[in-house]
């Protein structure tokens, strides 16, 4: 029988090699090590030309014989004749290599073969004794897979005499014998020869050795295609009646072969999920499984199998494990090192790498590969030597190609993950991939293929694929050229849609194989970036909407019938009256409202609107100043640097430029231009800190000025005391009075003990509503019927007069309230509002520990009387503690469940039935999303109200912080960080990776946030002034001739809702200042619009119910510092990714300096926002002492903190009720 393959001496352990004229002898134990293998291989043995051919070959031809495809080039023979010798140079190389590798050679154990053709084994044994094994076979000058891919099998000891660098292509179908004696030596196994082209070729031997070197395999067999390798392997290793286990996700042709052909041989198959370890264990225990065959990563969903685990499970039952590593390549994954027995590759893909050749291979132990080789020699499927040469050529650049493809695929996977038109991305490098943890452990790179699902049906997916300009639509992957296909069409079109779904193949699935094209080109082609013209279109549309809203507002606000919508504050202040008159003369739009909004000075705002309103306006002023400077630097310095970052680009055809052309991503890695960005970051940070310091100083002074100019307020003289100890024989009221008369005798004025009034709240609310309704009915402000029925829903019972009916119900409610008030006389809470004669006295009581036991006599500043949150006092300490835990869990859950409306929006956007109009699919998802965002602030207020705050202002401040955190996390980090919520959290659990992750993710979302500023920012402000919802409600009430029976109320100033929005836009501007300065002018416009609009709304629409004393400003301070530090962290990562490590290192001190500045400001200014200094308190007290009306103020102060639920009824008709006995006030 013929020898299975021919091995050139670089790979074989052959003692010598002579021309055909000599007798051949074979000694399987002789040999010298190859410098590549470290095994007992004869690296110096040269495959020499026959004498007659050598004499005829010119020197020039010999130097170029790699292009000569004649059989005589390698028509030579082997011999163990020691006298035959070798060329001196080769002998010297062999001698040095032998000394270097003798130890590893001795360590190779003998291989026992069973059931394999002896002739084949003999030949294979010659070759494989010195087979390449990565862990001990690398020569000293080859330390990487890339070097092995270039030089393995070729660099030293090549078996063909030629000084050509490239491997010769040996085109021959057979190898001749000089005489019958040589043929007999071959038949009697005294010598070795290829004999026939199907059994081996010197060119393919070089390819096999390269692959073995990369995979760390004893033996490699190459074939005509990847499918040929898979099918021959299955036929050779699985006996008739045997059993195979495979996975659901795999190449369809492989599945077809196993499901349709193998059953004809009685071979059965078990199909499991790639992650179903239990299913694998059950199969190998139930059946006599010959082979577990799977891909890793799989096709097309890129699932990853835990090779080490499945190998351990299978080997316990004697089952072989074969991994198809085509998607991984030997560079990204070495399955044999993790325990697999065999590895299959389609050489057509990454290894060939140029889309110009077919091939396949099997790598593994000598024994197993030899058994497969036996069948291969029978079936054929031989790899053409020209194809082998092309694959060898491709392997020399494989490490460069795969590195680029890994990088492009990884970055594009992150971009696609965040893309609103992509519903799902399949890539093992993403943290949300189900086997990401496995891929990280067993892969050094995640491959160049990304599968993803378009947000749409098959038609939309076809449109997307056809719109791509770079990739070819083709059924392959792994080449230099990018390739894209729809598996539903390319591979499964013969199946019905429901049949395709059984394999998980959806109509919107796309498989994208990234080539070696420039990343930015690929990114732009896939729609990952926005071009400038698209942004300008969006700007134009939103400017039009803003102009429309402003025009309508300027008209509608002048109509007297809309005064409740656009001037409720004016009604409250008596500057305007409600009327339904329509004035035709006021239909001309004007901009006078802008001038009136800008007229009031800061002092006017402070005196008329309060300190909180001034702080709100100063936030906008601060933002305008910051981003005015940032816009100048960004537009005139950073943007030109970015635009000309790669090379000089002329400023023509700008509308077609990608927005990335104006970002830092356009600057070359390592470019000195990045130092301009570095300097800009330092300068910008210094300017922001200076402006922040200035605002601190300004607002602190205004807070003091406001304090001096304001009239005495009850909360300035009052302290809330909790933890009052229970003294036997005394009531809480008596204990409080005794304590403060003794220890604060000179300043104590009075106290009010808090009662448990939760049982009165429902009655009080009902009475309040009924009283307001009765008042409006009697005044005629709402239409009414004269009579009604007193039964169920006013439809049953006897007829009664409406006014009389309401009055009787009100009297009954008052009687019930009076009764419950008397019953609550003894239900005191160990807390009281204690009032003092001076502010200084109250401050002393607040800031000094009152009792020896620090858990008793706890004091804190009292809020304004109308600001008290009375339900706080009815909850026990344990209940408040539990409520805080519940609120924390609910807040975290709300952040996580934020994905629900996103999924709903995506589902509606995917509706493509003909009955669903484009209006619904285009606008309803966005409407639902905005509605969800509208309910978030009330939810935050509800959560904060459950936390045990004593005032509504504290609740609003807490809700403001929650809403800011929610907005930053879900609108910023959720967009820039791809993957699941768990992945987003894990990013921050590994601090060392934060700069790198953010630096890679944040710049990719610049286009999205620029659009966000224009759409949500500009249009959102315009809708704020237009007040669409109140306008529509007012219109509906008038249309149906009904009026709201609720008492007119001025809407409260939405500080807790608007401040987080402003701060979020400030964070965007700070973060993208140096990354994408194109966003800065749009932000500046936003803040300028906000300044005008919110001044108008504060003057005409909103009215504060209570004053916090500017306590929202510390939130602004903390958000600004966080934004700066976030910018610094991203800068550290960016400079690292841009290969400018010195700039990255020099940026590290910047966040530290910023935090130190923050600490200084907190100690210098923020204390003034918590309490007033003694100097101010004493001076103000002295000024009050000179006032004549302080006695009247003290009289009001005594009853200022009575709980409304226990106060005298004010609803009865002419009935004067005495104060209930449970409310006790004491005046000293």
UniProtKB/TrEMBL annotation:
The lineage of its organism: Eukaryota, Viridiplantae, Streptophyta, Embryophyta, Tracheophyta. InterPro entries: CGS1/2, CSC1/OSCA1-like_7TM, CSC1/OSCA1-like_cyt, CSC1/OSCA1-like_N, Cys/Met-Metab_PyrdxlP-dep_enz, Cys_met_metab_PP, PyrdxlP-dep_Trfase, PyrdxlP-dep_Trfase_major. Residues 534-695 form the CSC1/OSCA1-like N-terminal transmembrane domain. Residues 717-871 form the CSC1/OSCA1-like cytosolic domain. SUPFAM superfamilies: PLP-dependent transferases (SSF53383). Its cofactor is pyridoxal 5'-phosphate. The chain crosses the membrane at residues 529-553, 615-639, 674-693, 881-900, 920-943, 963-985, 1061-1094, 1115-1136, 1142-1161. It comes from the Eukaryota. The keyword Acetylation does not apply. Keywords: Calcium, Ion channel, Ion transport, Membrane, Pyridoxal phosphate, Transmembrane, Transmembrane helix, Transport. Residues 885-1135 form the CSC1/OSCA1-like 7TM region domain. The keyword Hydrolase does not apply. This is Uncharacterized protein.
């Amino acid at each position: 029988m013929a020898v299975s393959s021919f091995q050139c001496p670089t790979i074989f352990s052959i003692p010598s090699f002579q021309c055909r004229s000599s007798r051949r002898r074979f000694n399987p134990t002789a040999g010298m090590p190859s410098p590549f293998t470290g095994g007992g291989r004869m690296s110096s043995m040269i495959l020499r030309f026959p004498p007659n051919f050598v004499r005829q070959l010119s020197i020039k031809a010999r130097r170029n014989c790699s292009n000569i495809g004649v059989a005589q080039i390698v028509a030579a023979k082997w011999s163990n004749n020691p006298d035959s010798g070798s060329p001196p140079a080769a002998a010297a190389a062999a001698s040095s290599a032998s000394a270097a590798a003798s130890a590893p050679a001795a360590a190779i154990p003998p291989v026992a073969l069973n059931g394999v053709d002896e002739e084949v084994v003999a030949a294979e044994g010659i070759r494989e004794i010195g087979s390449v094994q990565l862990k001990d076979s690398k020569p000293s000058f080859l330390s990487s897979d890339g070097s092995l891919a270039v030089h393995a099998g070729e660099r030293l000891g090549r078996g063909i005499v030629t000084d050509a660098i490239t491997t010769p292509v040996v085109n021959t179908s057979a190898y001749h014998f000089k005489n019958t004696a040589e043929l007999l030596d071959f038949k009697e196994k005294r010598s070795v020869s290829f004999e026939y082209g199907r059994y081996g070729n010197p060119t393919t031997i070089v390819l096999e050795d390269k692959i073995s070197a990369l995979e760390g395999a004893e033996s490699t067999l190459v074939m005509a295609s990847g499918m040929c390798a898979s099918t021959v392997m299955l036929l050779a290793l699985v006996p008739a009646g045997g059993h195979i286990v495979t996975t659901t996700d795999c190449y369809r042709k492989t599945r077809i072969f196993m499901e349709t052909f193998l059953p004809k041989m009685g071979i059965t198959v078990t199909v499991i999920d790639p992650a179903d370890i239990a299913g694998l264990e059950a199969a190998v225990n139930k059946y006599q499984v010959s082979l577990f065959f799977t891909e890793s990563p799989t096709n097309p969903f890129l699932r990853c199998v835990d090779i080490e685990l499945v190998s351990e499970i299978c080997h316990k039952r004697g089952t072989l494990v074969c991994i198809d590593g085509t998607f991984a390549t030997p560079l990204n994954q070495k399955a044999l090192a993790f325990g697999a027995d065999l590895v299959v590759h389609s050489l057509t893909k990454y290894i060939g790498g140029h889309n110009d050749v077919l091939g396949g291979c099997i790598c593994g132990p000598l024994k197993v590969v030899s058994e497969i080789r036996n069948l291969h020699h029978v079936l054929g499927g031989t790899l053409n030597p020209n194809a082998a040469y092309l694959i060898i050529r491709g392997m020399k650049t494989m490490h460069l190609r795969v590195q680029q493809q890994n990088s492009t695929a990884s970055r594009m996977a992150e971009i696609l993950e965040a893309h609103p038109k992509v519903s799902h991305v399949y890539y093992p490098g993403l943290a949300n991939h189900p086997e990401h943890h496995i891929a990280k452990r067993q892969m050094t790179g995640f491959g160049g293929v990304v599968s993803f699902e378009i947000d749409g049906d098959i038609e939309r997916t076809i449109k997307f694929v056809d719109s791509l300009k770079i990739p070819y639509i083709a059924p392959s992957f792994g080449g230099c050229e990018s390739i894209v296909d729809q598996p539903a069409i390319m591979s499964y079109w013969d199946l019905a849609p429901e049949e395709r779904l059984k394999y998980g193949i959806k109509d919107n699935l796309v498989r994208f194989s990234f080539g070696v094209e420039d990343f930015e080109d690929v990114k732009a082609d896939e729609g990952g970036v926005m071009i400038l013209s698209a942004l300008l279109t969006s700007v134009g549309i939103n400017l039009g909407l803003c102009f429309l809203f402003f025009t309508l507002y300027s008209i509608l606000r002048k109509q007297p019938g809309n005064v409740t919508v656009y001037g409720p504050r004016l009604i409250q202040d008596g500057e305007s009256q409600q009327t339904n008159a329509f004035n035709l003369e006021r239909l001309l739009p004007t901009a006078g409202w802008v001038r009136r909004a800008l007229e009031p000075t800061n002092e006017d705002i402070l005196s008329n609107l309060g300190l909180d309103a001034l702080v709100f306006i100063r936030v906008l002023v601060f933002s305008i100043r910051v981003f005015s400077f940032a816009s100048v630097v960004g537009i005139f310095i950073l943007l030109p640097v970015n635009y000309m970052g790669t090379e000089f680009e002329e400023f023509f055809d700008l509308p077609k430029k990608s927005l990335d052309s104006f970002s830092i991503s356009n600057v070359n890695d390592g470019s000195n231009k990045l130092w301009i960005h570095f300097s800009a970051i330092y300068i910008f940070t210094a300017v922001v800190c200076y402006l922040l310091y200035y605002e601190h100083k300004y607002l602190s002074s205004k807070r003091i000025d406001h304090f001096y100019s304001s009239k005495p307020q009850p909360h300035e003289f009052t302290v809330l005391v909790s933890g009052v100890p229970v003294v036997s024989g005394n009531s809480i009221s008596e204990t409080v009075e005794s304590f403060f008369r003794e220890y604060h005798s000179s300043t104590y004025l009075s106290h009010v003990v808090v009662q448990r009034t939760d049982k009165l709240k429902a009655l009080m609310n009902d009475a309040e509503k009924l009283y307001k309704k009765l008042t409006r009915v009697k005044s005629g402000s709402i239409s009414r019927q004269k009579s009604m029925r007193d039964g169920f829903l006013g439809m049953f019972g006897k007829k009664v007069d409406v006014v009389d009916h309401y009055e009787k119900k009100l009297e009954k409610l008052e009687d019930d309230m009076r009764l419950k008030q008397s019953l609550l006389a003894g239900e005191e809470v160990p807390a009281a509002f204690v009032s003092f004669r001076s502010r200084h006295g109250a401050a002393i009581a607040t800031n000094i520990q009152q009792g020896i036991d620090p858990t008793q006599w706890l004091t804190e500043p009292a809020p304004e009387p109308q600001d008290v949150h009375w339900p706080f006092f009815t909850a026990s300490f344990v209940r408040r503690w539990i409520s805080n835990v519940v609120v924390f869990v609910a807040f975290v859950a709300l952040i996580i469940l934020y994905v629900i409306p996103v999924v709903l929006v995506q589902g509606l956007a995917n509706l493509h039935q003909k009955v669903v109009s484009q209006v619904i699919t285009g606008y309803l998802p966005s409407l639902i999303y905005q509605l969800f965002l509208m309910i978030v602030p009330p939810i935050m207020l509800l959560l904060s109200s459950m936390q045990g705050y004593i005032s509504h202002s504290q609740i609003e401040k807490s809700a403001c912080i929650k809403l800011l955190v929610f907005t930053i996390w879900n609108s910023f980090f959720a967009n820039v960080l791809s993957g699941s919520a768990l992945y987003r959290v894990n990013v921050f659990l590994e601090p060392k990776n934060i700069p790198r992750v953010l630096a890679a993710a944040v710049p990719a979302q610049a286009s999205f946030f620029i659009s966000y500023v224009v759409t949500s920012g500009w249009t959102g402000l315009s809708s704020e002034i237009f007040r669409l919802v109140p306008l529509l409600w007012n219109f509906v009430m008038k249309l149906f001739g009904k009026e709201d029976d609720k008492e007119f109320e001025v809407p409260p100033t939405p500080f807790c809702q608007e401040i987080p929005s402003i701060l979020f836009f400030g964070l965007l501007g700070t973060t993208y200042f140096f990354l994408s300065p194109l966003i800065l002018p749009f932000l500046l416009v936003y803040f300028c619009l906000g300044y005008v609009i919110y001044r108008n709304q504060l003057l005409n629409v909103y009215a504060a119910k209570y004053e916090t004393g500017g306590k929202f400003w510390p939130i602004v301070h903390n958000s600004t510092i966080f934004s700066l530090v976030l910018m610094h962290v991203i800068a550290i990562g960016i400079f690292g990714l841009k290969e400018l490590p010195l700039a990255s290192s020099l940026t590290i001190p910047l966040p530290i300096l910023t935090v130190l500045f923050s600490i200084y400001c907190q100690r210098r200014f923020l204390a003034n926002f918590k309490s007033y200094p003694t100097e101010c308190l004493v001076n103000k007290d002295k000024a009050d002492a000179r006032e004549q009306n302080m006695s009247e103020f003290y009289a009001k102060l005594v009853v200022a903190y009575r709980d409304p639920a226990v106060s005298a009824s004010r609803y009865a008709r002419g009935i004067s009720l005495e104060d209930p006995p449970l409310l006790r006030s004491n005046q000293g």
